[in-house]
Each structure stands twice: as structure tokens, then as C-alpha cells.
Amino acid sequence: MAKQKISPFRLSSLLRLQKDPNLALQLFLNPNPDPNPKPFRYSLLSYDLIITKLGRAKMFDQMEQIVEQMKVETRFVPTEIIFCNIITFYGRARLPDRALNTFDQIPSFRCQRTAKSVNTLLNALLSCREFERMREVFVGMGRFAAPDVCTYNILMNASCLRDDVGGAWKVFDEMRKRGIRPNAVTFGTLIKVLCENNKLEEAFRVKEDMGRDFRVKPNTFVYASLMKGLYKANEFDLAFKLKNEMLERKIELDSRVYSTLISALFKAGRKGDVIGVLEEMKENGCKPDTVTYNALIHGYCQEKNFEAAFGVLSELEKEFKPDVTSYNVIIGGFCKEGKLREANELFEDMPRRKCAPDVVTYRTLFDGLCDGMQLKEAAPILDEMVFKGYSPRTESIMKFIDELCQGGNLKLLWTVLNSLAKGNLIDVVTWRIVVPLVCQNNKLLNASELVQTLLMP
């Protein structure tokens, strides 16, 4: 019996169900295997589904092939949201050139660009920290659409990431001149950048203005930012007053707020009050999450109570999958206290706990081993770090190499230089430290071999 052919509608259903992007691609390209296939009438939904699956899987070359195929379709005009999704994928992957190219290509698909695609592009460039390109896109935005509140919120966020208080105020003032009404996101971002730059009086003034002059109620994000600013300034009592204000105004307290309060209590030496905050969380229906547990772990590490920190980690493992921050905090605490064996043991145990070390993990352990003069133990950590594509801090490498040179540990120095060369991490400063040793120490392995190592791409 002949197999029933897949219709365009059925293809969309099958694509939606297929979890494997490679199998989904094969299905899309060849829905009805036939020696003499007729052109398949793809639907816009099918294109949308396969592009989304490939983009999420970072299969960008394959995704672009599908996009090119869509360009020749004549039965429909692709919607702007498809291109917005593609731009977002490129932004998350830190590929600003591809994001810009996609935006430029939109008219070739007979699709009009609006504020939606411009804002998506600005947000993608923000993810890539391409601030100058953001400015260029914004300046030329008038060719496509007028900026809206979302546009200015993205620009405000850029100022926040650069700790540019003046730039944030400039964005806010320009909004008002254009008659664009700020919303809760605008005020929240402005207050955040003010708090991060210790301008608490201005931040509280903005909080009052947003309610009185703009009829915008402060939300959880605003309160969380203010609390973090107060915590940073050691104004713990004011932070708790803000928490009570939230309760009075029936504003939902989330884990960010409670985690900030927990950190404040530890910093103020009031760890005995932490239990009360956790109980209040549960009474208010706010379940502790990874952020809360990490605040507890950090607090106990500051207290040098590593047994308690591990106890929290064990509790976390029962409820959630601990994120890498949980381990980084404990490893950092161990290194700070010179407990390098314990730090290395936890590092080696992370894969068993189903949590992969990240660049912070490697840097923290490597720096700790170097500070503790455990240079032999630091060398394989450096080699593994470079192998995984992570870069150590420049100052850490310089200190490491300098210690090896001062101690005359030439064999280990050679090993380290080879590791650095593999990652193309040898620069002119390394030359300045190592070359004098080549000239002065006859015991060094063949100097020409060392120079060759330094020149490796």
C-alpha cells in the first residue's frame, strides 16, 4: 500500500512535534521522498517552525539556507516577527554582524521594517555590547519608524550596563521631549543605574516622582534595586523598611527581594534573623529558589562556616539543580581561606554533581592555587581552562609566569608556555618576562624551541 503523502498542514504538525533539529530539517527538506518529486507547497508556519528550531540549536548555516529558500516563495509574504526571531538568535549567540545583515535583508522578502524589528536589533546589539552600533541604528531609525517607549528602554538599559548615569538621564529627558510616556521598565532601569552608582537620594526621588507625577506604581524590580543600593551602602534598617512598605502596599515580594535581605543580614552580622526571613518567605507564598540558596551559601562562606554552606548546597540539590554560581561561591570561599585542597576536591566533584565548571570556576581556582604558591597544581588547571576555550586573567598569568621564572622552575615554565600557546594567549608582556630568562639561564631548554613556542599561532 502506498504511503500517504504529507500535506503542508501535516508537515507543520510533524515539525512542531519533532524535538531533534537535525531530523526536523531532514523532514522539512524532504517531506515526501519520491523519485520524481513535485514542488512542495510549504506554508509560512512550516518556515517559522523550522527556522525557530534551527535558531535555538544554533544551526545558523542551515537556518540561513532555509531563509534563502523562503525568499523565492510567492504565495505568502514572511511576517516581520520571523526576522525578529532570527535577529534575537544572533544576538544571543553574540553575532552582531549577522544580526545587522538579517535586518538589512528584510525588504528583499517584501516585508516592511517597523519599530518592532528595529527594537529587536537594538536589543541584539545590546546583548553583544555593541554600543556604538546601537547609536548608529538609533540615529537612522527615522527611515523605518518612530522610536517608542521600548526603544528608549533599551537605550536606557545600555546606559545602565555602562554605568553611565548621565546617559540614562539624557535618554529619559529625550523621551519626555518627544512626548513618549515612561513606563515601569523605564523607571526601574533608571533607578537601577542610580543605585549601582551610589546615587540613592536621586533614586528615591525618582521613585516618588514616578508615582506622583507619572501615575506609575513602583514594582518589585524598583524595590529590589533600591534595597540592593541600601545594602551596598550598609543602610540595612532602611532596606527592611522598604520591605515593610511593599507588604503594606500589597506589592509581591519575590526571591530577589528576600535574597537581598538575607545578604544584608549576613553583612550586618545578624545571621540569627535569617531564619525569620525564610519563614516569612514561606508565609507569603514565596518559595526559596536558587537565588535564595546562593545568598545563603555566600553568607555562610563569608562567615567561614563551610559546613553550613555545604548543608545549604545539599538542600538545594533536593529541590533544584544547583547552578554553577553555587559552587563558585564555595570554591571562592575555600580559596580565600587557603583551603585549596577542599577547593580542588569540590571542583573535581562538580561533574558528578552534574554541574560543569565555567570560566569563573577555573579562574577562581587557578588564582587561588597561584596565591597559595601551589604552582604545580595550578598548571593542569590552566591547561584544561585553555583547552575548553576559557582565558585566564592577564594579571594572573603574568604573576604565575613571574613566580616560575623567579623560582627557576624551567620545566614547568615550558609546560605552561605550551598551554598558553595552544590558546594563542602569549603576548608581548610574556616576552618581556621570559626572554631575559632565556638570555641569563643556560639551564633552560633549547632557547630556539622556546622562541618557536612563543611564536605559535
Write the layout of secondary structure elements.
Blueprint: H1 8-17, H2 21-29, H3 44-56, H4 60-71, H5 80-92, H6 96-105, H7 115-127, H8 131-139, H9 149-161, H10 165-177, H11 184-196, H12 200-212, H13 220-232, H14 236-248, H15 255-267, H16 274-283, H17 290-302, H18 306-319, H19 324-336, H20 340-349, H21 359-371, H22 375-387, H23 394-407, H24 410-422, H25 428-440, H26 447-454
How would you summarize this macromolecular structure in one to three sentences?
This protein is an all-alpha fold. It contains 26 helices and no strands. The longest helix has 14 residues.
What does this structure look like?
The longest helix is centred in the last third of the chain and has 14 residues, at about 305-320. The chain starts with 7 loop residues before the first helix and ends with a helix. Helices cover about 70% and strands about 0% of the residues. The chain is an all-alpha fold and about 450 residues long. It is built from 26 helices and no strands. Mean pLDDT is about 85; it is low at about 455. The protein has a domain at about 220-285. It has helices spanning about 10-15, 20-30, 45-55, 60-70, 80-90, 95-105, 115-125, 130-140, 150-160, 165-175, 185-195, 200-210, 220-230, 235-250, 255-265, 275-285, 290-300, 305-320, 325-335, 340-350, 360-370, 375-385, 395-405, 410-420, 430-440, 445-455. It holds the Pfam family PPR_3. This is Pentatricopeptide repeat-containing protein.
